[in-house]
Amino acid sequence: MDPTLGEMARVFGRIGVLSFGGPAGQIALMHRELVEDRDWLEEDRFLHALNFCMLLPGPEAMQLATYSGWLLRGVTGGLLAGLLFVLPGFVVIMALSAVYFHLGELPVVAGILFGLKAAVLAIVVEALLKVSKRALKTPLAWGLAVAAFVAIAFLKLPFPLIVLGAGLVGIAVSLGRGTGTDAVQHKPAEETRLTGPTLRTVLVWGAIWLAPLALLIALPGVPQAFATMAGFFSTAAVVTFGGAYAVLAYVGQQAVEVHGWLMPGDMLAGLGLAETTPGPLILVLVFVGFLGGAREAGLDPALGGLLGGTVALFFTFAPCFLWIFAGAPHIERLRSVKWLSAGLAAITAAVVGVIANLAVWFGLHVLFGTVREAVAGPLSLPVPELATLNPMALVIALAAGVALLRFRLNLFVVLGGATLAGVAAIYLG
After folding, report:
1. What whole-number distance in Å separates Cα of residue 427 and Cα of residue 223?
2. Contact between 328 and 52 (Cβ < 8 Å)
3. With bands split at pLDDT 50, 70 and 90, how would you rate the model's confidence at 252?
4. Residues near 234 by beta carbon (within 8 Å), at least 6 away in sequence
5. pLDDT per residue as tens digits for the range 269-297
6. Least confident residue range of 22-31, 56-65, 334-343, 357-366
């Protein structure tokens, strides 16, 4: 018997509150709650849903929750599950963003943030190693990773262009090898039957996503910052293949260097705070929206931050519902298209290079007080001033790396130790 909406609300609310530890831990929690403990979903249906969500842009764990809810109670169930997965973390990250904005200069808060920033460097390196092992299995994958690193780190090419280019290369290679035509063949009647509902779903959820974007752009009196954020976070939602760590390089480049919403240290602090909250790590974009709204909207900072964070939440996650509700009926057909899988594999390989750039960017700004840009033709090279090296930041980052990679300690233990060390550094330094 399918669960009631009340039962789903209790279970998915519990999942949302307890969904710490990144996508692996979140997916394991959902598997235990939905497959093992309650037998709401069969093992193969859960795994098929997971495989589909791994193909999509955006946070795979949130989309898996949405898909699971859709399997149980249709669109209503999908909405309920997806929203309950992100709303607890949204409330927490909004509160932490307000503390950061208003109280970030207090010594104890500054010390906590200092320790978090240093630990984040180790966390990103760990993510880089994990993704590399999964994605870099062929010479083509290695070549795409190196090319992506050069493109974003030295040529400053935009992340969406890198994702598009890698996908096209993967598709071209697949078609050139003759492996792109093995898709399952469907009867015309089946295609006709599926096209109508799918088109309606795309139109409805496309309007839910894009109509507010158009209103923010067109309505007089709306602060320009919110319209810019809506477009920015919509773009980020479409190109977030490879998880939050991949898109953070794009967010950092745009939010810091182009829009001026953040300082380099802000992004590091935001990622550290997002690591301590339930829900998907991509909620760090809510932190970006809060600071951007507080600083640039021309409103009272509390109101501007609240609205900016809400804009970030909506335009980051609204597309996820479109992908799930439009794509779920076609899951088997999409999984069988070889050229599509090859394109997505190529994007994943390129994401490794993007995350490597993120690790370098974070490392330079965590460890050195001053980092300047040296331009040589089309290349832009970051050059740290060695005299501004922060020894304590280096010690905390190395200790966090050893704890995570060598001893495999729990993430919260590592973050707790890093914050204590950061507070000690502030008071004793």
Report:
1. 40
2. yes
3. confident
4. 209, 210, 213, 315, 319
5. 898 898 888 988 899 999 999 999 999 99
6. 334-343
- The H or E element containing residue 78 is helix 60-103
Sequence-distant contacts of 194-202: CB under 8 A, at least 24 apart: 194/329, 194/330, 197/329, 198/326, 198/329, 198/330, 201/322, 201/325, 201/326, 202/322, 202/326
Tokens at residue 106, please?
Answer: 């207090």
Selected residue with higher pLDDT from 346 and 362: 346
Name residues whose C-beta falls within 8 Å of residue 93's C-beta, 6 or more positions apart in sequence: 273, 274, 277, 279, 283, 284, 286, 287, 309
The CA distance from 60 to 54, in Å, is 6
Q: In the predicted model, is pLDDT for residue 43 greater than 70? A: yes
Q: Which residues contact 284 (CB under 8 A, 6 or more apart)?
A: 93, 244, 248, 251, 270, 271, 273, 274
Q: What is the pLDDT of residue 254?
A: 86
Q: Which residues pair with 384 in a beta bridge?
A: 371
DSSP 372: E
| 3-class state of residue 241 by DSSP | coil
Q: Which residues touch 411 (CB under 8 Å, ≥6 apart)? A: 20, 21, 22, 123, 275, 404
Residue 166: which of 408, 383, 296, 344 has the closest Cα?
344
What pLDDT, in 10s, does the model give residues 179-237?
654 444 444 434 434 567 888 999 999 999 999 999 999 999 999 999 999 999 999 88
Phi first, then psi, for residue 153 (nearest 5°) are -85, -40
CA-closest candidate to residue 363, choices 104, 108, 123: 123
